[in-house]
Amino acid sequence: MIPSEMYAETLAGLLAPLQPFLDDPSVSEVMINGPAQVFIERQGKLELTRARFESSGAVMAALRNIAQYAGSFVDENNPILEARLPDGSRVEAVVAPIVQQGPVVAIRRFSRTTLSLGRLIEFDALSADAASALQAFTTAKCNIAVAGGTGSGKTSLLNVLAACIPDSERMLVLEDTHEIAIDATHVVYMQARKAQEHGDAAITIRDLFRACLRMRPDRIIVGEIRGPEALDLVQAMVSGHGGCMTTLHATYPRDTLTRLETMCMMSDVNMPLTAIRMQIGSGLDVIVQVGRLQDGSRKLTHITEVVGFDTESGKYQLRDLFVRQYQGLDEQGRARSQLLPTGHAPTFLPRLQAHGVRLPAAMLTPQPV
C-alpha cells in the first residue's frame, strides 16, 4: 500500500477539477457523470458545475489510484468501486461496461463539523424534547433503528446517538466502509472486506457479527444493514444484547419493519416468517425516521415505538411518539414544519426509570386531537 502522504498528494493532482468543491464545506456531495459533466449538492439542491476532466482516462486514473490505496481494484472485470478519500469522504464509482458515458462517481463528503443533538436542534432537524427523548432511549439501552432514504442523514444521526452512550461501556462497530467515528474511550471498529484479486476470501458483516458476540460487547452498532446480517442483529436484540443500533433504507416506520423482515429472510436460516416478525416486534424498540423535505433540508420525521407483533391480525403494533407536522412553504420556499410529541408514553417507560432517566413532560401530556 502506498504511504498516506504520497497518496493524498498524488490524488489531489488527479482530482484537481474537483478540488474547489472538496474544499467547500457547504458541498455535501460531488457527482461525476462522465468526464464532461460534474454536479454538486449544496444545501440539498443539485447544481451543474463547469468542472471538466480531460477524458474518461483521466477519471479512471484517479479511480485506480483510489482503489490501489484501498487495497482494491477497478476495471472492466471489477466495474464497481467502494472506497474512501484521505479526509474520510466516501467514494462509489461504476465504470464500463456498466455505464457508457464514462466513469460515474459519487463522492459523499465527510463533514468536518462534529454534530451533536444540540447542533441538530440548532438546525431545526429535531426539537429539544425529541433530543431529550433520544438521549434517554440511548442511555436506557433501547434497540434503535435509524431509517431513511439515500442522503437523508442516517449515518450522521447514528453517530450523534452513539455519542450519547455512557463512556463506561464497550462499543463494537461493524461496517462495510468506515463512516462511524465515536468520541469515546472504549470503541472497537471492525470492517468487512470484499474478496481480493489475489484470492483472499471475503469477510462479511455476518462474519464480524459472529466474532463480536464473543468479544463482550456492551453495545453492537452496525453501520448499515443490507442483507442477511439483519437476522443476526435481530437475534442479538432478543437474546440480551440491549442498546443495539443500526441504519437501513426505508421511507416510513412501517416500511422499515417490512424492509427489516425481508432482509432477515435473505438468511440461510430456515425460519417461518411469523417467527421472524415476532422477533423483530420483540427485539426492536424504537424507529427513528429521517428524510429530506421538499426544500432539501434533512429532518427527523418520526420517532416511533415498536410495541410488538400481533399474531392474530398479522400486523406490527406501532406507537408514534413524535411526528413532524407540516405547514407548507414560507416566502423563501423553505418547508415549515414542527416535530411534535403525540402525548403517548412508551411502553418501556419502566426501563427508562430503572436507568434513572426521565422523558420530557410534553411526551407524557395528552395532546389535543
Characterize the structure shown.
It is a single chain. The chain has helices spanning about 5-15, 20, 55-70, 115-120, 130-140, 155-160, 205-210, 230-240, 255-265, 275-285, 350-355; strands at about 25-35, 40, 45-50, 80-85, 90-95, 105-110, 145-150, 170-175, 185-190, 220, 245-250, 285-290, 300-310, 315-330, 335-340. The mean pLDDT is about 90. The chain folds into 2 domains: about 5-110, 2-Layer Sandwich (Beta-Lactamase), CATH 3.30.450.90; about 115-365, P-loop containing nucleotide triphosphate hydrolases (Rossmann fold, 3-Layer(aba) Sandwich). It is α/β, with parallel strands linked by helices and about 375 residues long. Strand 12 (about 285-290) and strand 13 (about 300-310) form a beta hairpin. It has a 9-stranded mixed beta sheet with strand order 9-8-10-11-7-12-13-14-15, sandwiched between helices. The protein has 11 helices and 15 strands. The longest helix is centred in the first third of the chain and has 14 residues, at about 55-70.
